[in-house]
Amino acid sequence: MGSSEERVVAVIMVGGPTKGTRFRPLSLNTPKPLFPLAGQPMVHHPISACKRIPNLAQIYLIGFYEEREFTLYVSSISNELKVPVRYLKEDKPHGSAGGLYNFRDLIMEDNPSHIVLLNCDVCCSFPLPEMLEAHRRYGGIGTILVIKVSAESANQFGELVADPVTNELLHYTEKPETFVSDLINCGVYVFTPDIFTAIQGVSTQRKDRANLQRLSSFEALHDVTRSLPKDFVRLDQDILSPLAGKKQLYTYETSGFWEQIKTPGMSLKCSALYLSRYRFTSPNLLASGDGTKSATIIGDVYIHPSAKIHPTAKIGPNVSISANARVGAGARLISCIILDDVEIKENAVVIHAIVGWKSSIGKWSRVQAGGDYNAKLGVTILGEAVGVEDEVVVVNCIVLPNKTLNVSVQEEIIL
User: Fold this and answer.
1) Which residues lie below 8 Å from residue 407, measured CB to CB, with a gap of 6+?
2) 3-class SS at 57?
3) Which helix (H) or strand (E) segment is 97 a member of?
4) What is the pLDDT of residues 211-250, one digit of tens each?
5) By C-alpha distance, which of 135, 358, 396, 164 is closest to 265?
6) For residue 270, what pLDDT band results from cuts at 50, 70 and 90?
7) Which of 17, 160, 188, 370 would you label with 62, given CA atoms 20 to 30 Å apart?
8) Distance CA 238, CA 162 (A)
9) Strand, helix or coil for residue 129
10) Is 327's pLDDT higher than 80?
11) pLDDT tens digits for 333-363?
12) Which of 164-178, 184-198, 296-310 has the lowest mean pLDDT?
């Protein structure tokens, strides 16, 4: 373990409203980081994982959302975890490393020995204390969490090559056109404060290069117009790639789960992963019931204390039910997220679906999909305040907010 004087600061990059467009229609109503997975806001999962880090001094959330959108959540989570959490709004895009550098003075206020950097749209078992220990053994300025994936899917991510003995990062390339490695970057890092010197170095190089350009040369002028602003620094291309093979960066391979939450469909898969993790971390959050005095519960299910579920309903596996939802007699719910104030009436069936806030599903209706989390219509999504009338079947559809469906639909995006 590290010495008692060593302090750690965690930084979670949460993006902004222009970044979560693939998450629509769910991000039309709430910032993507606050969308509930397994009954807790998406950002809650990395925040609670940070709580396990020894000597954690502070957690910062960095993004483009208005501060008022995070005020209530930041206040409640700080009180709940007894760790100060603060939201910092970027004035303009600075890149994944530039955003970190932009707030370096605040981040260094606690004089941390290490900075843990995470991306909010990562669903992961977050082995942060283990990573920190590995990083202390390795030395260098940073350790990257990595995982092995199939060769077919690797090129969607940052691929890397590491020394099999020392775990040193030897080569890094972002979304390569040809196969490099089945080892990918998970978007979770441990850095020493020396990372700020590396980021500053990129900015200085850009500034010097721009000053050296002779604008009389057409080629130089063309290059200047295409070049990035000096304070826009990307972690992958500008920091990880150049430092690979220089005994500065190392890797820590996770044996746990890992997914990226880019689309509503993936949020359903990630909700299932977090629900299954509750068995070990928070079993008190999982519902139980055998159909006598309360609903029959199968597998991992989260039910908010304010939700009302009829005893003859059958729920699970992989179901998350939010505040003030009402589920009627004989209803059957499998693999779904039910958001606040939803009403599901008698004998309705919901399978592989996300039902938006204040929506209602009529008696004997079915809202379902095939369950392919990666397909565009693999999970049925109902936006806010969608009404599905009695005996209507909705299959493999995305329905935007404030629509009423009185006829059955299949394989449609309803605008």
Assistant:
1) 392
2) strand
3) helix 95-102
4) 555 444 444 444 443 466 667 888 888 888 888 899 999 9
5) 396
6) very high
7) 160
8) 18
9) helix
10) yes
11) 999 999 999 999 999 999 999 999 999 999 9
12) 164-178
* 162 within 8 A of 180, measured Cβ to Cβ: no
Given this model, what pLDDT does residue 207 score? 63
Query: Based on C-alpha coordinates, what's the Rg of the chain?
Result: 23
| Average pLDDT score over the chain | 89
Residue 26 vs residue 124, higher pLDDT: 124
Q: Is 72 helix (H, G, I), strand (E, B) or coil?
A: helix
Helix (H) or strand (E) holding 267: helix 264-281
- Tokens for 150, please give them: 């199939």
Listed in sequence order, the residues at least 6 apart from 166 whose beta carbon sits closer than 8 Å to its beta carbon are 138, 250
Q: Which helix (H) or strand (E) holds 87?
A: strand 85-89
Token digits of residue 272: 């299932």
Residues 6+ apart with CB under 8 A from 29: 356, 357, 383, 384, 401
Separation between Cα atoms, residue 73 and residue 96, nearest integer Å = 23
- Separation CA 187–CA 63 (nearest Å): 16
Q: Please answer whether residues 355 and 342 qualify as being in contact, where contact means their C-beta atoms are separated by less than 8 angstroms.
A: yes
- Distance from C-alpha of 71 to C-alpha of 76, rounded to nearest angstrom: 9
Beta bridge partners of 334: 351
The rounded distance, in Å, linking the Cα atoms of 218 and 235 is 30
In three-state secondary structure terms, 197 is: helix
- Report the residue count for the chain: 415
